[in-house]
Design a protein that fits this description.
alpha/beta, 5 strands, 44% helix
């Protein structure tokens, strides 16, 4: 009996864990939304400056809708949160990350633009990839590709790295794990 209680305690099998797991199981198809919302909710108090106010309700589900083009919009900033942990075979994540970078770069306001990612791989992709913007936007909507070409020129003119260091150079790329350390933990430690 004592061994069981010790194991439960050591591995944090608490009532809160069970309650959370049951809640997630109810909406298992929405697990990414739960993670996305949790990360943004945990980050907002850490990143908002005194007096900075949200101007649009945060987009707490993964993906945006037309009424909320960015995950976070305030009177001072726009931000996208990419919460996935890259493993190496990340083609769709790369394309999604680049499309979000393009959306941030297309914003006509003077607000600070930020891209929050997990770990070093997403940033490395953005600053070093020789893949073309044409490839990276290949699965994006025709509207996004059209807006890109209208503002920046033909997609085949840029590599991802050239776009990141050129038209998107004003966008801060921030590792969320510096704010939410559990995102930086290796899978085997969770």
């Amino acid at each position: 009996m004592t061994g069981c209680a010790d194991t439960v305690e050591r591995f944090h099998f608490s009532e809160d864990l069970l309650d959370a797991a049951l809640a997630v199981r109810q909406h298992v198809g929405r697990l990414n939304d739960v993670i996305h919302a949790s990360v943004i909710a945990r980050c907002l108090p850490l990143i908002l400056e005194p007096g900075e106010t949200l101007t649009v309700r945060p987009s707490l589900g993964a993906g945006n809708d037309p009424s909320r083009p960015f995950d976070v919009e305030t009177d001072r900033r726009i931000a996208e949160f990419k919460v996935s942990q890259w493993k190496g075979a990340d083609t769709m994540r790369k394309r999604g990350l680049f499309a979000d970078l393009v959306h941030l770069a297309l914003d006509p306001t003077e607000r600070r633009a930020q891209m929050f990612v997990v770990g070093a791989l997403p940033k490395k992709f953005l600053v070093a990839s020789r893949s073309t913007a044409e490839w990276a936007l290949g699965r994006s909507s025709p509207h996004t590709r059209h807006r890109f070409e209208e503002k920046f020129g033909p997609t085949e003119q840029f590599t991802v790295a050239e776009f990141t260091s050129g038209p998107a150079s004003h966008i801060e790329i921030i590792d969320i794990a510096t704010l939410v350390p559990s995102l930086g933990l290796a899978d085997e430690l969770l």
